[in-house]
Write a structure and sequence with these properties.
InterPro entries: Beta-lactam-related, Beta-lactam/transpept-like, Diverse_Enzym_Activities. The chain contains 15 helices and 16 strands. It has 518 residues and is α+β, with helices and mostly antiparallel strands. It has a domain of 194 residues: DD-peptidase/beta-lactamase superfamily (Beta-lactamase), CATH 3.40.710.10.
């Protein structure tokens, strides 16, 4: 039950097959699609970061983030391929919720299925088993866009032996076979993902389609629809549609429950290089390296073109232009000529970033600091905008992010965890400060980011979703989440002439992070 917590995940993420049951996703019999290395590679020592990260460059930051792999494909060539620790180019790594985006791509491949995207699932031939469940009345579009109004909670239960059936992540993890079932009647069958979905209820005074609500259970329901429509298992469909067609160098694996059903909310394992190959296909409009159209371009265009209603549904205040469409995070382009970027994101810093206009793919695998990992990816992504005609090995323009760029980065990260709700918790820690001259950035009422600080904070993975970001020098309260789900006070380090007091904190409904003190 602790394989997803620090420090155990450092080993388990590279050895899921030794922890959980998995099924194979075979590649094809054809040749491996090459990933040529660029003559001149990206020098990460010349990709600067803001001072609040505690690192001068991305090269400095990656080891501190417990990075496993960092790959950058630019204009068809690898300009960066780095591995850390025990990760190798051929080693499998769990991609967590990046798997959700892969599910959506398979839905996109089933064009006949998409013609029914607005029909209630239980009233059509898709999934009549959903009658009487929390998904009754939901459509395929609701599943793709995470707008289902079931009573599922993305939060983890605090009790390690939470019973199967609890409508939260702990209950889902038990049903998926990710966590042991705890106390149960041994004469009863093991819990399964599909039985878990059937037990979910409709949230009171809510309706499907009205609001964005990130629920891992929704991806599992989407996979169920796929299997019912195609009469294939998820692993068979993934192999048929993508893995055997993209020239992958190694078969993938995916976790399975007691009934052999795939854990598609986060259970895919693949090599970082194969994840780059998938990203290359997305960057090329859904085509393989040989030119075969695997993912309909119309589906990708729809994904990158969320309407204003979709944006507003995701966030009432979204100055950075982030949206969620077809199980991808979408960032609108810098100009009308620059197409939006796609991002598939998984907990603990698993990132697949695709910028079609720049022919750029970034893959990041790690364990810990979400915000800084995303900032590192974002800074590397800027090579396409700052050095359009230059070698990617040249330094980026501008040594530091200014205050406005820092605010943009914060807003970008806070939108990635809307399930936490407003005024929740976030993590940051910084190492340098001169007396009382610390600058702070405040988000809503519950969060302060110190650009330079003499305080140590605990790392956590639930990030605020706030409506207002303001600069402040007086934010005396900071909400923190530790790995045991308890909100802890911020404790200043001792300084000459000052007592080591504890700052008070406001209460918070906190989800579980996997943290440690910096």
């Amino acid at each position: 039950s602790n394989w997803q917590t620090w420090p155990h995940l450092k080993a388990s993420f590279l050895n899921i097959e030794g922890v959980l049951d998995t099924a194979a996703v075979p590649g094809g019999p054809g040749p491996v699609a090459p990933l040529p290395t660029a003559p001149e590679c990206l020098d990460l020592t010349k990709v600067p970061l803001p001072s609040w990260t505690g690192a001068k460059t991305v090269a400095d930051l990656l080891p501190r983030l417990e990075t496993d792999a960092f790959l950058v494909l630019y204009r068809g060539e690898l300009v960066c391929e780095q591995y850390f620790g025990k990760q190798t180019s051929s080693g499998l790594h769990i991609v967590q919720s990046v798997t959700k985006s892969v599910v959506a791509l398979l839905v996109g491949c089933e064009e006949e299925l998409l013609t029914q995207r607005r029909e209630p699932l239980e009233r059509s031939s898709l999934l009549p088993e959903l009658r009487g469940t929390g998904y009754e009345g939901a459509t395929l579009e609701h599943l793709l866009d995470m707008t289902c109004a079931t009573d599922f909670s993305e939060a983890y239960a605090e009790a390690e032996d939470a019973p199967a059936g609890g409508a939260d992540m702990e209950g889902l993890c038990v049903a998926m076979g990710w966590h042991p079932p705890g106390h149960r009647d041994k004469s009863c069958p093991l819990p399964s993902t599909r039985s878990f979905l059937k037990r979910l209820k409709k949230r009171k005074r809510s309706a499907h389609g009205r609001a964005f609500d990130y629920q891992s259970s929704t991806a599992e329901c989407l996979s169920w629809v796929l299997e019912a429509h195609t009469k294939l298992s998820f692993q068979e469909l993934l192999s048929k549609r993508l893995w055997s067609q993209l020239g992958m160098e190694r078969e993938a694996r995916i976790t399975v429950d007691a009934d052999g059903k795939c854990g598609v909310s986060g259970g895919l394992l693949c090599t970082p290089r194969d994840l780059v190959r998938l990203g290359r296909a997305l960057s090329a409009g859904g085509r393989s390296q040989s030119g075969a159209q695997l993912i309909p371009e119309s589906f990708l265009e729809d994904t990158m073109s969320p309407d204003e209603e979709a944006r507003q549904r995701y966030s009432k205040a979204d100055p950075y232009g982030l949206a969620y469409r077809n199980s991808f995070w979408i960032l609108k382009g810098e100009s009308k000529r620059h197409r939006p970027s796609l991002m598939a994101y998984g907990i603990h810093g698993q990132v697949l970033w695709v910028d079609p206009s720049a022919e750029l793919v970034v893959v990041k695998s790690e364990y810990t600091q979400v915000m800084e990992a995303l900032l590192a990816v974002r800074r590397v992504a800027e090579i396409s905008q700052l050095n359009k005609t230059s070698s990617p090995g040249l330094p980026l323009r501008g040594a530091h992010l200014d205050a406005e760029e820092v605010r943009d980065a914060l807003l970008f990260a806070t939108h990635l965890y809307p399930m936490a709700g407003p005024a929740e918790t976030v993590n940051f820690w910084h190492e340098q400060c001169e007396g009382d001259a610390c600058e702070q950035y405040s988000l809503g009422d519950g969060f302060c980011l110190m650009r330079a600080s003499d305080y140590k904070q605990l790392e956590a993975h639930n990030v605020l979703k706030g409506d207002d970001l303001r600069r402040s020098r007086s934010g005396s309260q900071v909400l923190l989440v530790s790995s045991n789900c308890r909100v802890k006070a911020l404790q200043p380090q001792e300084r000459p002439g000052q007592e080591n007091d504890t700052w008070p904190v406001r209460g918070s409904r906190a989800g579980r992070g996997t943290g440690y003190a910096d």
